[in-house]
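Re: your question from the hallway

Yes, I did run it. Sequences:
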Amino acid sequence: MSAFFLLAIVQGFVIGISRTFYGRLSENIGPFKASVSAHIVGFVFLTIAIPLVGEKFLYVGLTLPGYAYLGGVFGAFFVVVSSYVFPRIGAMNAALFVISGQMITAVFLDWHRYDVTPDLIRWIGICIILLGIYLSRFKASEEPKETQNECDNIELTR
Amino acid sequence: MISKASDFFLAFVGGVLLSLMLYLSSILASDTSAIYSSWVAHGLGAIVAICITAIVSLLMSKKAKTKETKKFPLWLYLGGIPGAFTVLLAAININGSQSVSGTIAFALFGQIVFGVASDQYGILGIPRRKIRPVDFAVVGCVLLGSLLIIYGRAGL
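Structure:
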């Protein structure tokens, strides 16, 4: 296995670590402030990192569409949503459902941007992910009941 | 904590938002650099997050929301560092690797493995959750479906 694949696995771990931080922070200060903190700290970190890796802050003569700069709008809402759900559904489910939404959206964005019509393989991929979501619903419907019962028991013993 | 179907749906919506963010950021990165594009996204994201926090707190201020604040480790505030570090790793990988599809697939695999291990062992202080047999079927489906989507594109 190439070193880059190992690095990619590490990257996956680091993504997981950051979501755990946001999720735990959200439990304490709420998902909105958690998103503010995540972005400010990340911004400061990158401001220091950019000169260190020899990149620059200013690009002259770019002919990019204005919306290319607007990724952060979605990013702000993404951190709110993902740090809100993290403590509620757990680390594994958070990873699985975010990936599902990400992959299925990516197919449609490719279709839109590169005019890549999804081939049969991609449609099958979407169906299998949806099957996974369907399977996890069994658990979702089981879990609240159990927790509910536990709560009831606590109420009763009080 | 009681998890509802709406929480799972929200997590899925989170993935949609993430994909849209990466889509726009990748357009910016194509003419600049991955790290610059992420810097712009973090800067704008901070402004937007401050605005929505202000709006929400204005709307909520009518209701009394005197929540008792527990003490919590302050290092939790540093979550933005691993978050931003991800971008650096991704940039190294995409510039250096022969197979972009492969690295994306391995990164997804890493996220899922870390998620399962976190629930199993309570990594970084999260409550432990029991992994059920059906979870492995869900993991298998999401991973296989994602691989087909990644390699379906690569095959074109």
